[in-house]
Amino acid sequence: MEDTPYTLIEASAHCDGPCGVYDPASARVAGEAVQSMTKKMLALAENHADNCSSATYLNTMSRYASIKEEEAQTCKDELLVLWTDFFKPMHLEAHPELHTTFWNAAKLCSACKVEVSAQHAQELMDAIEAIHHMFWSVKGREVPWIRAS
User: Fold this and answer.
1) Helices (H), 15-141
2) For 139, which DSSP code?
3) Which domains does the chain have, with CATH numbers?
């Protein structure tokens, strides 16, 4: 059997996926849904303080809670992908707060799943905004922070 000559092609990348597939916008959209559902839950409870046992109230509250929990998990998943797949050790030089910011954001996603806290929902959005700025800074671009709601 004859050895087949081959050409070795060397490739390198700093991400696990091709550039252009990562974007913190998906975490922002999910975070906004968490904040929106949190606000709706608080308003619903306030407006039905005397009648929280009606079927309509219970149905609406459970729908809001379900959406809030699903979106909090989606937000967490999106943030973890950015943290573990996109950001690399070299990015820590420019952003030494990177790990702490992501750690806290992930913890806030968990808190938002189990709580109905306007404060934690806002803190989550603040963390996502900080991540947005870190992400685009690393890519050398200025992309404004824009919210859909």
Assistant:
1) 25-47, 55-81, 91-94, 98-114, 118-138
2) T
3) 25-138 (1.20.120.400)
- CA quadruple 132, 138, 139, 144: dihedral, nearest 10: 30
pTM score, two decimals?
0.85
pLDDT by residue (tens digit) across 5-34?
777 776 555 555 556 679 999 999 999 999
Q: What are phi and psi of 51, to 5 degrees?
A: -145, 70
Distance CA(111)–CA(75), nearest Å, equals: 12
Helix (H, G, I), strand (E, B) or coil at 147: coil
Q: What is the CA radius of gyration of the chain?
A: 21
Cβ atoms of 72 and 112 closer than 8 Å: yes
**Please, are residues 24 and 135 in contact by the beta-carbon 8 Å criterion?**
yes
Distance CA 114, CA 107 (A): 11
